[in-house]
Amino acid sequence: MRVSIIGAGRLGRTLAACLPGSTLCRRGETIPRADVYWLAVRDADIGGVKLPRGGVALHSSGALGPDAIPRHGERGVLHPLMTFPGPELGLPRLAVHARVEGTPRAVAAAEALALRLGWKSFHFHGDRARYHAAAVMVSGLAGALFCAAAEELAAASGMSVAEARQLLFPLAAESLERAAQGGPAVLTGPAARGDVATMDGHVRVIDPAHRAVYESLSALMLCGRTKPPPSA
After folding, report:
1. Rounded to 10 degrees, what is the CA torsion of 11, 6, 128, 177?
2. Cβ–Cβ under 8 Å, residues 14 and 87
3. Which of the four, 2, 23, 119, 170, has the lowest number of CB atoms within 10 Å?
4. Which of 117-131, 133-147, 163-177, 217-231 is predicted with the least confidence, judged by mean pLDDT?
5. Please, what is the average pLDDT of the chain?
6. Shortest CA distance to 187 belongs to which of 154, 216, 225, 156?
């Protein structure tokens, strides 16, 4: 299967590194004929890419459907539910689930590519924007929260931000794994306990840029969505 990857951003470069024999096309370059054209570009740029005729066209947007690719009969979606910082920083170490959607031929091509990459494909029929929002919440936004926490620890202790990230990582990883296994009932901290005085103390001392997100997430836990773990 000849594959042309359009877009040399973090995802495009990663896909090219994981698919030996594929062609990586940067902006403005001629796209060679292929069996599959895989668009790894910004959502707003998908509709403007002019593809050769024939073959299957796929895009990697989580928020859009197959119709985002105009003027192509066989079109679909292959969206990896994973973060890709770029091959220079390493490839994903955990299982990659990938949403597939489109015409029957496009779905078959997407599933074949997912299998070749070692991904687990799944079909999704629902609110794409909400699906993508959920993905963003646990990837980029969760990462931003982690980086903000490291900045707070560094400011409080005098250690470097890099040292703070290393110190906090086991706590973050364990907390996320517990949440994946047990849901809201296993979440800990002052908001889970209803310890409002402690939370107020946090809000008084943290960076003003971080207060709104701290208060919003604390309110999410306080509003009754979490339950205390069962007593031993």
Report:
1. -10
2. yes
3. 170
4. 217-231
5. 93
6. 225
